[in-house]
Amino acid sequence: MIMNKIIGLAVLLFCLSGCVRDNDAIYYPVGNVDVERGGPALEAGKGDLIARSYNTEDYVLDTLAQYPGDPTLGKLTFMVSLKNRLADQEVSGFNGVGLSKLTMSLGYKDGNYPAESQVPVYTSSDVTASYAIKLRLKGELTLTGDEWMIDYIYAQLAGLFQPYPPTSFPEVFMCKGGEQSYATFDSFRRTWTFDITYDRSNLSFSQLYFNLFVNLAGQKREDRVRLRIDKESYFEIYKEKRGNVVKLHFLFFFGSGYENRTRITCVRGVFVHHLKRL
């Protein structure tokens, strides 16, 4: 009888510890992260500029971040859709021009966001195309109060909306955050100063997302968040010229894969081999 009670207690403790592990596993804090995927920088003359946004002066987003319900929740993730104010070249499906906006996630652990905030910076009408991206994101994010702090923060360029944790998804082309050579925290993690660049080619996607994710920790119900995007920031999309792509036709081919720096895709039975130019 005593042995049965001991076994039952052990099983209960195991179940409880399993639940705790499962719940904790939903949330993976992102520390220092520096992910870059894609081919080398696009050579001159090898692509056509199809979209570009930029700034001629600093842009400041000054807004209020609020916790829903009980502020003792402790942590909550916010997202900023990164945009520049001006464009000298635009294409259909490009949403990289306008005012940046702060959006609150609907839940602490699952990180979901309202559908209206999940808008790609670019939607491609040609799924067989290869693209190159050149960008610079320079500025500063500051919490104006003393009750909140930045738990983690990162800028992400990806073919999916918020793949998380970002290092686990090949669809993440760029993810940079934390304390790095290009970014620093000041004043007990209430200010994050950054100067991020990305220049890669041989990218394939149907949709492209460019966002800043900020996880904040604190006890107050609200605090002001100030994001300054420097006038030197810009975002450019190039469509690589078809002359760099060799197409070989095979009778049977299934699936897709990635090997080293050679990207392989299959579109309606056509084997497309994108060769890195040496």
Textual characterization of the structure:
The structure is a single chain. By secondary structure, the chain is mainly beta. It folds into two domains: 213 residues, Sandwich (Jelly Rolls); 31 residues, no CATH class. It contains one helix and 19 strands. A hairpin with a 2-residue loop joins strand 18 and strand 19. It is globular, with a radius of gyration of 22 Å.
Could you list some keywords that capture this structure?
7-stranded antiparallel sheet, 8-stranded antiparallel sheet, 9% helix, Jelly Rolls, 278 residues, mainly beta, 1 helix, 2 domains, disordered C terminus
Name of the level-1 CATH class of the largest domain = Mainly Beta
The CATH architecture of the largest domain comes to Sandwich
- Class derived from helix and strand content: mainly beta
Question: What does the average pLDDT come to?
Answer: 80
CATH superfamily of the largest domain: Protein of unknown function DUF3845
Sheet with most strands: 8 strands, antiparallel
- Strand residue content: over 45%
Helical fraction equals: under 10%
Summed up, the domain count is 2
Topology, please?
Layout: H1 2-25, E1 33-36, E2 47-54, E3 59-66, E4 75-81, E5 86-89, E6 101-104, E7 122-123, E8 131-143, E9 148-158, E10 172-177, E11 183-186, E12 191-203, E13 207-218, E14 222-229, E15 234-240, E16 245-249, E17 257-259, E18 262-267, E19 270-274
Antiparallel strand pairs: 1-10, 2-5, 2-15, 3-14, 4-6, 4-13, 7-13, 8-12, 8-14, 8-15, 9-10, 9-13, 11-12, 16-19, 17-18, 18-19
